[in-house]
């Protein structure tokens, strides 16, 4: 038996190749299936099975692409009602190839239709050796049950049963292979360690220490992080059957005048994936700014309107389009040829965002200059430490709560590093704010000057409550 993990850092997703002597299964595949095809070829294995633990909410899966490329059979929970050719699985079913036997446990809780695959290597014995548990059990955490409106209590109770009456009945030595790690919003407190054992989690997973059902349900249904907009959309698309990657448009280069004309269409949006310093210097009016170096795919899926054609301002447009595909933003049709330099040279209008240092911000606040300071970090980050007088509007909420701010005041936006705040600045500019300032370096810079405590998210970016790559 051979297990190879494939980890996608930007969405903290783990998928797996489970191999025997000649055949293998791919479990919870990402949308870019070429990595599996190459790996199987290098190992001399044929991909014969594609296994889904559940309908993934945070990314679009590559199960149909992989089945088309290999002829493999797709297996998924029968209760999911998937609308593509597949074999539905329920409690007690088995999937076998060569000397490997995968026994199906129904483990709902994170989603209603979830299953886990318990692997027995019959060539070595009859006992279970590993479990692919999807989003039911993570290292240091468990799946969040609050993604389905009105069903959080029900699913949290189901999750308790899935954990305590099924997964924790497995022997301590059984290896645990989850579908996510630290940085994913499919849980609340995942550790950065990517695999574990049942015994390790039994001893060290805080969620598993809550023995009382009522206390467990309360813990998993209060103070959870916000769920991105694309979670329900991706889950539905994965069940219906995503478009094949080969059918998606490849972004083409657009000269500035053509780019500007398309950008004026109500069916289009402009997405600038450069970092905040470049975006601040000059950008296409009305553009979203989501820097590709941060939690790009998650914020894009969360914040960008669905169904629009995406026009990129990007240094690597093909790469950025592929990241957008991961969260179901499939209509990336073009990119600005020659970049903002060429755009500006045509005489087309540009916008900019003033970048202000942490020290300059402190001096403005101390001098009592009239201004608004918007902190777009999560409520948890904000509660640990923040600048007195700031207002906490989490980034996604800027879209709806901007009316709480005075558009006639200079408005400084701050996060932990300057990246999320730049996204916030772009959202405010779209809503008519003209005096918008981005705090370069964010609270990290503020702390470096001794003006605030060090941010625990920045000091320990791989800790269990880490929310992304942007504040390293």
What would you say this structure looks like, in words?
β11 and β12 form a beta hairpin. The strands form 5 sheets. Strands 1-2-3-4-5-6 form a 6-stranded mixed beta sheet, covered by helices on one side. A 6-stranded mixed beta sheet has the order 7-8-9-10-13-14. It has a 5-stranded parallel beta sheet with strand order 15-19-18-16-17. The protein contains 17 helices and 24 strands. The radius of gyration is 24 Å and the shape is globular. The protein is of the alpha/beta class and 472 residues long.
Put the structure in a nutshell.
29% of the residues lie in helices and 22% in strands. The chain has 472 residues and is α/β, with parallel strands linked by helices.
- Structural class computed from helices and strand pairing: alpha/beta
Overall mean pLDDT:
94
Q: What is the end-to-end distance?
A: 37 Å
What spatial order of strands do you see in the largest sheet?
A: 1-2-3-4-5-6
Tell me the number of strands.
24
**CATH architecture annotation of the largest domain:** 4-Layer Sandwich
Largest sheet: 6 strands, mixed
Helix content: 25-40%
CATH superfamily annotation of the largest domain: Ribonuclease Z/Hydroxyacylglutathione hydrolase-like
CATH class of the largest domain: Alpha Beta
Query: In the residues, how many domains can be counted?
Result: 3
Radius of gyration: 24 Å
| CATH topology descriptor of the largest domain | Metallo-beta-lactamase, Chain A
List the helices and strands and how they pair.
Blueprint: E1 2-8, E2 13-19, E3 23-27, H1 34-43, E4 46-51, H2 63-70, E5 73-77, E6 87-89, E7 94-97, E8 100-106, E9 115-121, E10 128-134, E11 137-138, E12 141-142, H3 152-164, E13 175-178, E14 196-197, H4 198-204, H5 213-221, H6 230-240, E15 252-254, H7 256-263, E16 268-272, H8 276-281, E17 288-289, H9 296-303, E18 309-313, H10 317-326, E19 332-336, H11 339-345, E20 354-356, H12 358-366, E21 372-375, H13 379-384, E22 391-392, H14 398-401, E23 411-414, H15 419-430, E24 436-439, H16 442-448, H17 456-459
Parallel strand pairs: 3-4, 4-5, 5-6, 10-13, 15-19, 16-17, 16-18, 18-19, 20-24, 21-22, 21-23, 23-24
Antiparallel strand pairs: 1-2, 2-3, 7-8, 8-9, 9-10, 11-12, 13-14
Helix pairs in contact: 3-5
């Amino acid at each position: 038996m051979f297990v190879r993990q494939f980890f996608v850092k930007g969405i903290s997703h783990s998928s797996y190749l489970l191999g025997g002597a000649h055949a293998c299964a791919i479990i919870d595949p990402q949308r870019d299936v070429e990595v599996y095809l190459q790996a199987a070829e290098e190992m001399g294995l044929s991909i014969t099975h594609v296994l889904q633990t559940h309908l993934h909410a945070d990314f679009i899966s590559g199960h149909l692409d992989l089945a088309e490329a290999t002829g493999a059979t797709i297996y998924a929970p029968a209760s999911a009602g998937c609308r593509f050719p597949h074999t539905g699985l329920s409690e007690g079913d088995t999937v076998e190839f060569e000397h490997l036997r995968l026994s199906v446990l129904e483990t709902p809780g994170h989603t209603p239709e979830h299953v886990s695959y318990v692997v027995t290597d019959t060539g070595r014995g009859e006992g279970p050796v590993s479990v692919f548990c999807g989003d039911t059990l993570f290292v240091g955490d468990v799946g969040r049950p609050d993604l389905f409106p009105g069903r959080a209590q029900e699913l949290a109770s189901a999750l308790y049963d899935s954990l305590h009456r099924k997964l924790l009945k497995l022997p301590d030595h059984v290896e645990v292979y989850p579908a996510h790690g630290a940085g994913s919003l499919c849980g609340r407190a995942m550790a950065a360690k990517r695999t574990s054992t049942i015994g390790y989690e039994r001893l060290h997973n805080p969620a598993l220490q809550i023995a009382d059902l009522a206390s467990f349900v309360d813990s998993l249904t209060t103070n959870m992080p916000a769920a991105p907009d694309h979670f329900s959309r991706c889950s539905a698309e994965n069940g219906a059957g995503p478009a094949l990657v080969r059918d998606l448009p490849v972004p083409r280069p657009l000269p500035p005048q053509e780019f500007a004309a398309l950008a004026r269409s109500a069916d289009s949006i402009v997405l600038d994936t450069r970092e905040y310093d470049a975006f601040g210097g000059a950008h296409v009016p009305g553009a979203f700014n989501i820097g590709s170096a941060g939690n790009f795919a998650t914020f894009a899926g969360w914040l960008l309107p669905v169904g629009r054609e995406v026009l990129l301002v990007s240094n690597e447009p093909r790469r950025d389009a592929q990241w957008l595909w991961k969260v179901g933003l499939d209509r990336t049709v073009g990119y600005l040829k020659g970049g903002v330099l060429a755009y500006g040279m045509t005489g087309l209008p540009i916008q900019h965002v003033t970048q202000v240092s942490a020290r300059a911000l402190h001096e403005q606040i101390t001098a009592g200059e009239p201004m608004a300071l918007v902190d777009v970090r999560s409520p948890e980050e904000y509660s640990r430490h923040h600048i007195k007088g700031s207002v906490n509007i989490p980034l996604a909420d800027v879209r709806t709560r901007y009316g709480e701010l005075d558009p006639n005041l200079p408005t400084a936006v701050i996060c932990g590093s300057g990246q999320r705040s730049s996204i916030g600045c772009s959202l405010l500019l779209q809503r008519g704010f003209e005096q918008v300032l981005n705090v370069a370096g964010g609270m990290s810079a503020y702390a470096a000057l001794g003006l605030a405590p060090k941010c625990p998210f920045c000091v320990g970016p791989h800790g269990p409550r880490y929310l992304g790559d942007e504040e390293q």
